[in-house]
Every structure is written in C-alpha cells, then in structure tokens.
Amino acid sequence: MSTESDLASVQTDLAALRHDVSSLLEHLRISASNSAQNAASQLDDGARRVYRSMAAEGERSVKALCGQVEAQPMVALLVALGVGYFGGRLLSR
Q1: pLDDT given at position 6
Q2: Phi, psi angle pair for 72, to nearest 5°
Q3: Spatial contact of 69 and 76, defined as CB atoms under 8 Å apart
Q4: Which one of 10, 31, 38, 55 is at 20 to 30 Å from 47 when CA atoms are compared?
C-alpha cells in the first residue's frame, strides 16, 4: 500500500510540476513578446524623432540657401555654373 500511495503522490507531483513548467513557459513567452514590442516601439519613436529632426534641419537649410540666393543672385548663378562645369568635367572622365 505504501508503494501505491508513494506512486500516486509522485504522479500528482509530476502533474503539478508539468502544469507549473507550462505556466512558466507561457509567462516567459508573453514577457518576451512584450519586451520585443516595447523595443520595437522605442525604435520606432527614435526613428520618428530623427526623421523630424532631419526634416526640420533640411527646411532650415533650404530657407537659408534661398535667402542667400535672393540676397546675392549673381554670386549664386556663378557658383551654380562653376559647380556644373567642374562636375561635368569630373563625370566625363
């Protein structure tokens, strides 16, 4: 009788252990999924901030360049011609 009760006790313990391990694995899966989602969200937020920053810097640069062209149109024309000439010479080689 003692052996049968010990065997039943071991079987009960194994069933409980199986349930606990299953619960732990499910918890780990959910935790890993949440961590991955949080990391992706942080990367997305960072990328959006960088994009907005670069877009704003680009707009400021364009405004500054337009201001220079409006203030000194002849200099801007000569610079554009020079860059085009040397660029064409470099690309033709």
Answers
A1: 85
A2: -135, 75
A3: yes
A4: 31
What does the radius of gyration of the chain's CA atoms come to, in whole angstroms? Answer: 35
Q: What pLDDT does 2 receive?
A: 81
Residue for token digits 């942080």?
Answer: 42
CA 26 to chain centre: 27
- Which residues of the chain register pLDDT less than 70? 1
Q: Give the residue extent of every domain in the chain.
A: 2-91
Alpha helix segments (H runs only) across the chain: 2-71, 73-91
